[in-house]
Structure formats: C-alpha cells, structure tokens
Automatic annotation (TrEMBL):
It comes from Helicobacter apodemus. Residues 1-20 form the signal peptide. Keywords: Signal. Residues 163-273 form the PBP domain. InterPro entries: PBP_domain (IPR024370), Phosphate_ABC_transporter (IPR050811). This is Phosphate ABC transporter substrate-binding protein.
C-alpha cells in the first residue's frame, strides 16, 4: 500500500514538474498552406492597414514539412505543433481542442471545427488532367481518401477515358501523401498515365502552375484572390482536420482555442500557465 501511494506521489510530482517547464512551440514555414490554415483558424494574426498579417512569434522554431514536424515533436517532450489529421501516427499525441478530440467522425458531425480544404489548382487543361481530377472526386476514390484519414467530397461514379500523357503535380507536403495514394490507384485504372509528384509547399504549388512548371498544384489552404487573378482554377480535393500535437511525455490532453492562440503568439510560455 505504501509503495502504491509513493508511486502515485512520484507520478504527480513528475507531472507538476513537466507543467512548470517552458513550452517549445514548433510551426510550419511561411508559404505552407497548413500554417496559413492554422493562423486563420486560431486567429493568430495582427491587423495592419485592414489586412490580417501572420503573427506567429518570431522566436518559434520553424520546420518545412509534415515529416519534420512529426519528428521534432516526437523528440522534444515540451514541444507542441500542428499537422494534417491524415498524417497522425503513434510517434506523437493529438490533443483535444475545447474538449473535442480530432477525428473524421467529429469533423463530420461538426463537433471538431479545426479543419480546412485540401485544394488542387490548374491553369491549363487537357484530357489527362480532366480524367485524373474527375477520378479524385469520384465514388471510386472515396474509400482511398477515407482510409487515409480524410473526408471525401465525391460527386459520382468514374469511368476513365484512358488518355495518354504525363502529369506533373507539385505543392503541399500535407496533400502529397494523399495524392501519392490517388496516383497509385489511378494508374492502375489508366496505365497510359505517367504522373510525377513533387513535394514542397502550397505557395510553390500554385506558383508552379502559374509559371507552367506543373500541371496541377496541391494547396492545403484557401486559394488567394491574388492567385485567382493570375488564372488558376481551384477544386476541392478533400476535407482535412488540423491536429494539435504534443510529445507522449506531456500530461496535457486538452487546450482551448484561445490557449493555442496565445502559445503561438508567445503570450503563454510554460505549461503551468494553462492550468
């Protein structure tokens, strides 16, 4: 009995010590669609001349891909970051926001409101682009999208016209894993297609299409008005949740939206402050 009480006491002390330590926030880079969606959803911006400007604290560590974000949080016990819901794995711990855990079910029933569209953009068109994009929003692609952890926006059945050619798809590292799965399934239906996927970020994806470097751009945020004026045409690929993640050693299981906002503004700096 004494050993049990001592063990519980030690566990409580360790939890309190962890909460007293500094928070180590990690953000995606400027140009990342995931960062843009995160800033918009959590209102982490300041107003300058009636424009909303990203206000994530400058001292915060920056990563340039979903994979690096996962590794960084997994290797730092006081870290906190954010990723696509579909990218969650066992290396980190997702936390609830306002008492609701991130999941496809909770996004669908609208209890978890931290989500965004995965978009693709094009400027020119040809039979292969049209055929592939028709497949991505078809009932045939729906199981692939759902299995990957996203919400499908399927619009009907698909029958390929088997066009021949090459597609270059570029952009968001958050969209890339899903696009790789869609590519793999599509080329089984249409072996005439040669599809190359290049991972970067949303802004590079859009600019690659504008400049004619890529046929399709992957964008994990809303397409900007300035981009639309340059001739790109957006299409929703799927709906994705944003998950706030911490290290498994962190005892925190829930934060409010306001607490997340203040952490990334640099106003909350220790875990103890959120109690």
């Amino acid at each position: 009995m004494k050993k049990t009480i001592l063990g519980l006491w030690l566990l409580a002390c360790l939890s309190l010590n962890a909460l007293a330590e500094n928070i180590y926030p990690i953000s995606r880079e400027m140009g990342s669609g995931t960062r843009s969606a995160f800033v918009d959803i959590f209102e982490i911006y300041k107003s300058v001349n009636n424009k909303k400007i990203d206000a994530i604290a400058q001292k915060i560590e920056i990563t340039n891909s979903t994979g690096i974000m996962l590794t960084s949080v997994a290797n730092s016990k006081n870290s906190i970051g954010y990723i696509s819901l579909g990218a969650l794995n066992n290396s980190i711990k997702p936390i609830s926001i306002n008492g609701v855990i991130p999941s496809v079910e909770n996004i669908t029933n609208k209890s978890y409101t931290i989500f965004r569209n995965f978009n693709v953009v094009t400027k020119l068109s040809n039979p292969l682009i049209e055929d592939f994009l028709a497949y991505t929003v078809s009932l045939e692609a729906k199981p692939i999208i759902q299995k990957a952890g996203y919400i499908s926006v399927s619009k009907g059945n698909f029958k390929s016209k088997n066009p021949r050619g090459k597609l270059i798809i570029a952009g968001s590292s958050s969209v890339t894993p899903l696009m790789e799965k869609l590519k793999e399934s599509y080329v089984k239906i249409n072996p005439n297609a040669d599809i190359e996927i290049s991972q970067s970020d949303s802004t590079i994806g859009v600019n690659s299409v504008i400049e004619g470097i890529a046929d399709i751009g992957m964008v994990s945020r809303e397409v900007k008005e300035s981009e639309l004026k340059k001739g790109v045409k957006p299409q929703v690929l799927a709906i994705d949740g944003l998950a706030i993640i911490v290290n498994h050693q962190n005892p925190i299981t829930n934060l409010t939206k306001e607490q997340v906002r203040k952490i990334f503004l640099g106003e909350i700096t220790t875990w103890e402050q959120i109690q």
